[in-house]
Amino acid sequence: MEAVLGQVEQLPALLAVSRSALVRDWDSLTLDRALEWARYFQHLYDRFRARPQLREALGRRLRRSQPYPVLGFPALGRCPQLLGLALLENRALPPAQLPQPRAFGVVAAALALLKQGRGAQPAADGDRDGSSSPDGYRERAAGDGCTAGLLLSWLLGSQERFSAFCLCLPCSHLAFLAGHYSQLSRPYLELLTGWGSRLLYDPLQGRWVKSCLDKAELSWEELRERFVCLCQGPALLKEQTQAALELLRTQDGDFKVCGLSVWTDLLMEV
């Protein structure tokens, strides 16, 4: 156990380095190792959160560390998000070490992790770390919300970045995130609307085609798949998606036959 305590004591240093100019000298192997440590700390959180004495010992060792004495046991559970956000915001990190696809993967995984396995109620046993008490549970939830807000602000802070994010990720991942983060669902639907409005109907082929083949946009098949995924999500997301499509169809002339409005055809498919 002493070895684990010694490892946990390094978390503040890991977060401090990830925010510093030292990352300028990181190579891909160093970055991989840092991300692996973050996942390991999150694993420790899941493993020990239901064991009050060990949880208290880990929290006490974290609070003893510098330069972030306010870190407690719940920080272990948010480590992938905290590290990912620090790296995304650190301009000293060479872009080649965290190219867009990988950066987007870090963000998507961090956001998904905040919504997975965090629904359990706090244990009845209290401890000095406070992470299992009702107040500690609320504090942890508030911390998760703050971290998610920072990640979403980074993602939505640039239309070009958000568009590239949505092109990069599988539609099922995007539907999951849109179903759990209301801040994402509307911008995502607006982005899909923009892509759909640029499709043209080719009567010779009998299908919708891209208006510009070399632009980074979606084909008809890809657009349809994304709307289908959204409609297979939570009830609220499904209702929001169908309402958006129905409004677009009405604005486009409220056609009821194929080939006249991309929104009519999408509604028939989903």
TrEMBL record:
GO terms for cellular component: Fanconi anaemia nuclear complex. InterPro entries: FANCF (IPR035428), FANCF_C_sf (IPR038505). Residues 125-139 have a biased composition (Basic and acidic residues). One of its GO terms (biological process) is interstrand cross-link repair. Gene3D superfamilies: 1.25.40.490. Residues 119-139 are annotated as: Disordered. Coiled coil: none annotated. This is FANCF protein. The gene is Fancf.
